[in-house]
Amino acid sequence: MTQAGPALLDRLLDDVAATRRSGRRRWLYAVAAAVAFAVGGPAVAVFTGDESSGGETVAATDPSSGVWAEVTTLNRAWGSEVDLKVKNAPSLLRCQLVAIGRDESEQVVLSWTVPEKTGDAVESKPSDPMQGAAAMHPEEVVRYEVRNPDGKALVTLKAP
Fold first, then answer.
1. In this structure, are residues 58 and 156 in contact, taking their beta carbons and an 8 Å threshold?
2. CA gap 139, 47 in Å, rounded
3. In what order do the strands lie in the sheet with 141-147?
4. Measured between alpha carbons, how far apart are the two ends of the chain, in Å?
Protein backbone atom coordinates (compact mmCIF):
# COMPACT_ATOMS: atom_id res chain seq x y z
CA MET A 1 0.00 0.00 0.00
CA THR A 2 1.16 3.56 -0.77
CA GLN A 3 2.13 5.79 2.09
CA ALA A 4 0.13 8.97 2.51
CA GLY A 5 2.14 12.12 2.68
CA PRO A 6 3.81 14.86 0.64
CA ALA A 7 5.36 12.42 -1.88
CA LEU A 8 1.94 10.95 -2.73
CA LEU A 9 0.48 14.42 -3.18
CA ASP A 10 3.38 15.39 -5.48
CA ARG A 11 2.86 12.25 -7.63
CA LEU A 12 -0.89 12.89 -7.87
CA LEU A 13 -0.33 16.52 -8.86
CA ASP A 14 2.29 15.45 -11.47
CA ASP A 15 -0.18 12.90 -12.94
CA VAL A 16 -2.95 15.50 -13.12
CA ALA A 17 -0.60 18.03 -14.79
CA ALA A 18 0.62 15.43 -17.33
CA THR A 19 -2.95 14.44 -18.17
CA ARG A 20 -3.95 18.06 -18.70
CA ARG A 21 -0.88 18.74 -20.88
CA SER A 22 -1.62 15.77 -23.12
CA GLY A 23 -5.28 16.86 -23.37
CA ARG A 24 -4.23 20.39 -24.38
CA ARG A 25 -1.74 18.96 -26.88
CA ARG A 26 -4.44 16.77 -28.47
CA TRP A 27 -6.80 19.76 -28.60
CA LEU A 28 -4.06 21.86 -30.27
CA TYR A 29 -3.43 19.11 -32.88
CA ALA A 30 -7.15 18.88 -33.58
CA VAL A 31 -7.40 22.66 -34.09
CA ALA A 32 -4.34 22.62 -36.39
CA ALA A 33 -5.85 19.78 -38.46
CA ALA A 34 -9.18 21.61 -38.72
CA VAL A 35 -7.42 24.78 -39.92
CA ALA A 36 -5.42 22.76 -42.47
CA PHE A 37 -8.60 21.16 -43.84
CA ALA A 38 -10.48 24.45 -43.88
CA VAL A 39 -7.72 26.20 -45.83
CA GLY A 40 -6.46 23.29 -47.92
CA GLY A 41 -9.76 21.59 -48.78
CA PRO A 42 -11.14 24.33 -51.06
CA ALA A 43 -7.71 24.80 -52.67
CA VAL A 44 -7.60 21.13 -53.60
CA ALA A 45 -11.10 21.39 -55.07
CA VAL A 46 -10.09 24.43 -57.15
CA PHE A 47 -6.90 22.85 -58.48
CA THR A 48 -8.43 19.48 -59.32
CA GLY A 49 -11.45 20.91 -61.17
CA ASP A 50 -13.90 18.68 -63.03
CA GLU A 51 -11.96 17.42 -66.02
CA SER A 52 -13.81 14.09 -66.10
CA SER A 53 -16.81 15.62 -67.84
CA GLY A 54 -15.16 15.42 -71.29
CA GLY A 55 -15.12 18.96 -72.65
CA GLU A 56 -14.90 19.33 -76.42
CA THR A 57 -13.15 22.16 -78.25
CA VAL A 58 -13.66 23.59 -81.73
CA ALA A 59 -11.94 26.58 -83.37
CA ALA A 60 -12.49 28.48 -86.62
CA THR A 61 -11.39 31.61 -88.49
CA ASP A 62 -13.71 33.53 -90.77
CA PRO A 63 -11.83 34.38 -93.99
CA SER A 64 -13.75 37.61 -94.65
CA SER A 65 -13.65 39.14 -91.15
CA GLY A 66 -10.39 37.53 -90.00
CA VAL A 67 -11.95 36.85 -86.59
CA TRP A 68 -10.79 33.65 -84.89
CA ALA A 69 -12.71 31.94 -82.07
CA GLU A 70 -12.35 28.82 -79.96
CA VAL A 71 -15.29 27.31 -78.05
CA THR A 72 -14.98 24.61 -75.39
CA THR A 73 -18.19 23.02 -74.16
CA LEU A 74 -18.84 20.88 -71.10
CA ASN A 75 -22.06 18.94 -70.68
CA ARG A 76 -23.79 19.67 -67.39
CA ALA A 77 -27.07 18.47 -65.90
CA TRP A 78 -28.64 21.87 -66.62
CA GLY A 79 -27.21 22.37 -70.16
CA SER A 80 -23.80 23.51 -71.42
CA GLU A 81 -20.93 25.28 -69.76
CA VAL A 82 -19.04 27.21 -72.44
CA ASP A 83 -15.58 28.80 -72.55
CA LEU A 84 -14.73 31.18 -75.38
CA LYS A 85 -11.51 32.74 -76.69
CA VAL A 86 -11.53 35.31 -79.51
CA LYS A 87 -8.87 37.17 -81.45
CA ASN A 88 -8.76 39.73 -84.29
CA ALA A 89 -12.14 41.26 -83.41
CA PRO A 90 -12.32 45.05 -83.85
CA SER A 91 -11.62 47.11 -80.70
CA LEU A 92 -14.56 48.28 -78.59
CA LEU A 93 -17.04 46.16 -80.57
CA ARG A 94 -19.89 44.66 -78.54
CA CYS A 95 -20.18 40.98 -79.36
CA GLN A 96 -22.33 37.99 -78.49
CA LEU A 97 -21.75 34.27 -78.62
CA VAL A 98 -24.95 32.61 -79.78
CA ALA A 99 -25.70 28.87 -79.68
CA ILE A 100 -27.95 27.67 -82.50
CA GLY A 101 -29.88 24.46 -81.89
CA ARG A 102 -30.92 21.67 -84.27
CA ASP A 103 -34.37 23.29 -84.49
CA GLU A 104 -32.71 26.67 -85.36
CA SER A 105 -33.58 28.05 -81.91
CA GLU A 106 -31.03 30.51 -80.55
CA GLN A 107 -29.64 31.24 -77.10
CA VAL A 108 -27.19 33.98 -76.20
CA VAL A 109 -24.43 32.24 -74.28
CA LEU A 110 -22.45 35.35 -73.37
CA SER A 111 -21.82 38.92 -74.44
CA TRP A 112 -18.82 41.22 -74.05
CA THR A 113 -17.09 44.30 -75.37
CA VAL A 114 -13.78 43.76 -77.14
CA PRO A 115 -11.12 45.68 -75.19
CA GLU A 116 -9.29 48.54 -76.88
CA LYS A 117 -6.04 47.32 -78.36
CA THR A 118 -3.01 49.36 -77.38
CA GLY A 119 0.74 48.69 -77.37
CA ASP A 120 1.57 44.97 -77.33
CA ALA A 121 -2.13 44.05 -77.39
CA VAL A 122 -2.31 45.13 -81.05
CA GLU A 123 -0.56 41.91 -82.06
CA SER A 124 -2.89 39.01 -82.67
CA LYS A 125 -3.31 36.79 -79.62
CA PRO A 126 -6.41 35.14 -78.16
CA SER A 127 -8.41 36.86 -75.46
CA ASP A 128 -8.52 35.51 -71.95
CA PRO A 129 -11.16 32.78 -71.72
CA MET A 130 -14.70 34.03 -71.15
CA GLN A 131 -17.31 31.80 -69.52
CA GLY A 132 -20.98 31.46 -70.31
CA ALA A 133 -23.78 28.91 -70.22
CA ALA A 134 -26.73 27.71 -72.26
CA ALA A 135 -29.78 25.65 -71.38
CA MET A 136 -29.12 23.53 -74.49
CA HIS A 137 -26.93 20.47 -74.02
CA PRO A 138 -23.90 20.19 -76.34
CA GLU A 139 -25.55 17.50 -78.49
CA GLU A 140 -28.49 19.88 -79.13
CA VAL A 141 -26.22 22.62 -80.56
CA VAL A 142 -25.30 22.53 -84.25
CA ARG A 143 -23.18 25.69 -84.38
CA TYR A 144 -22.00 28.74 -82.49
CA GLU A 145 -21.77 32.25 -83.92
CA VAL A 146 -19.81 35.23 -82.68
CA ARG A 147 -21.98 38.18 -83.72
CA ASN A 148 -21.66 41.95 -83.86
CA PRO A 149 -24.41 44.27 -82.53
CA ASP A 150 -26.23 44.14 -85.89
CA GLY A 151 -26.51 40.35 -85.65
CA LYS A 152 -23.95 39.73 -88.42
CA ALA A 153 -21.83 36.63 -87.79
CA LEU A 154 -18.14 37.51 -87.42
CA VAL A 155 -17.21 33.81 -87.23
CA THR A 156 -19.22 30.58 -87.27
CA LEU A 157 -18.08 27.43 -85.47
CA LYS A 158 -19.61 24.02 -86.08
CA ALA A 159 -20.48 22.41 -82.77
CA PRO A 160 -18.02 19.73 -81.67
1. no
2. 28
3. 106-113, 94-101, 141-147, 153-158
4. 86
| Overall size of the chain counted in residues | 160
The full DSSP string for 4-37 is: PSHHHHHHHHHHHHHHHHHHHHHHHHHHHHHHHH
User: In this structure, which amino acid lies at residue 137?
Assistant: H
How far from chain centre, in Å, is Cα 137? 19
**Cα(108)–Cα(80) distance, integer angstroms:** 12
Q: Specify the 3-state DSSP secondary structure of 61.
A: strand
Q: Is 55 exposed, middle or buried (0-12, 13-18, 19+ CB in 10 A)?
A: middle
User: Splitting the chain (160 residues) into consecutive groups of 10 residues, what average pLDDT does each group show?
Assistant: 72 80 78 74 49 77 93 94 93 93 95 79 73 95 95 92
